[in-house]
Write a structure and sequence with these properties.
By secondary structure, the chain is an alpha/beta fold. It has one domain: Rossmann fold. It contains 9 helices and 7 strands; from the N terminus they run βαβαβαβαβααβαααβ. A 7-stranded parallel beta sheet has the order 3-2-1-4-5-6-7, with helices on both faces. Helix 1 runs parallel beside helix 2, helix 3 packs parallel to helix 4 and helix 4 runs parallel beside helix 6. The longest helix has 21 residues. The two termini are 34 Å apart.
Length: 262
C-alpha cells in the first residue's frame, strides 16, 4: 500500500525570516502539505502579513509574528504568543540569515573590517538560532515529535573569502544543531541543518547582476544553475515532516554540487 511521504498534518510550524525568498517558500510548502498552522516571522511586519495571507490561501491557519531573532526578550515573547495561540509547536525552521534586521551583507577584508561589524553576522546566524531553539524546545517536549531545521550556508562548510565571520557563524550554527540533536533527542526532537549555496532570493539576485561574474561562479557547480527557493524548501519540509523522524544531527547539502562533502 502506498503512503504519503511528506505529511505535515496537524503540525504547527514556525519559520523565521519567512517574509520572502526561501523562508516564504518553506512556509507555503508546509501549508500545502497539510500543516495546521504556520507562524510567519519577519522583521518587516508587512512582509510577514503578506506571506501569512498566502499561507491561509493554502488552507492552513497563519500567524504573522514580526520579531528580531537576535533579541532574547523579543524571541521569548514571540514563542509565548505561539503557546497562547496554538498550545504547542512541532517544527521550528531557523531560516533568518544574512546580516539581519537593518544590516548590509557584503564581502569585506577581514583584516580591516571593524570588529563591531561582526555582531550583525553572529547575531542573526548564530545567536538568533540559539535564541529560537532555547524558546522553541519547551513547546515541543510534550508531544515527542519535534523538528528543528536550521538553514546554513556552504560558506560554513568550505569557507568563503571575504565572509569569514559569516562562515564562522554558519559553522557554529551547524555545530549547535549537532549538540541539540544529542540533548533534545530524548524528547523525540530531531535537529538538522540544510546547507545551501547561491539561491535566487532577493538578496542574491542583486549579486548576480554581473552576468560575466555569475557565469564564472557557475563553473563551480555540477548542476549549472543557481538554486531556487523551491529547491531548498523541499528538503526543509521533508525534515520537518513525519518522514524525517530518523534523521538527526546531520548537515545535508542542497547546493547543485557547489561543494561535494562526504
Amino acid at each position: 500500500m502506498g503512503r504519503t511521504i511528506i505529511d505535515m498534518s496537524d503540525r504547527v510550524v514556525l519559520v523565521t525570516g519567512a517574509g520572502q525568498g526561501v523562508g516564504r517558500q518553506i512556509a507555503l510548502d508546509a501549508a500545502s502539505n497539510g500543516a495546521r498552522a504556520v507562524v510567519v516571522n519577519d522583521f518587516v511586519p508587512e512582509r510577514a502579513e503578506a506571506v501569512a495571507e498566502e499561507v491561509r490561501k493554502e488552507g492552513a491557519a497563519a500567524l504573522a509574528l514580526p520579531f528580531d531573532v537576535t533579541s532574547p526578550d523579543a524571541v521569548e515573547a514571540a514563542f509565548a504568543r505561539v503557546r497562547e495561540e496554538f498550545g504547542e509547536l512541532h517544527a521550528l525552521v531557523n531560516n533568518a540569515g544574512n546580516a539581519g534586521a537593518g544590516g548590509k551583507a557584503r564581502f569585506e577584508d577581514f583584516w580591516s573590517e571593524p570588529v563591531d561589524g561582526w555582531n550583525a553576522w553572529l547575531g542573526t546566524n548564530l545567536f538568533g538560532v540559539m535564541n529560537c531553539v532555547r524558546a522553541g524546545v519547551p513547546l515541543m517536549r510534550g508531544h515527542g515529535q519535534g523538528r528543528i531545521v536550521t538553514v546554513i550556508s556552504d560558506a560554513g562548510r568550505v569557507g568563503e573569502a571575504g565572509l569569514e565571520v559569516y562562515s564562522a557563524a554558519k559553522a557554529g550554527a551547524a555545530g549547535f544543531m549537532r549538540a541539540v540533536a544529542r540533548s533534545a533527542g530524548r524528547f523525540g526532537i530531531t535537529a538538522n541543518s540544510v546547507s545551501i549555496s547561491a539561491t535566487r532570493t532577493p538578496f542574491v539576485e542583486a549579486m548576480l547582476d554581473d552576468e560575466a561574474a555569475a557565469k564564472e561562479q557557475l563553473k563551480r557547480y555540477i548542476i549549472r544553475r543557481f538554486g531556487t527557493p523551491e529547491d531548498i524548501a523541499g528538503m526543509v519540509v521533508f525534515l520537518s515532516s513525519t518522514a524525517g523522524a530518523w534523521v538527526t544531527g546531520q548537515t545535508i547539502s542542497v547546493n547543485g554540487g557547489y561543494a561535494v562533502i562526504p
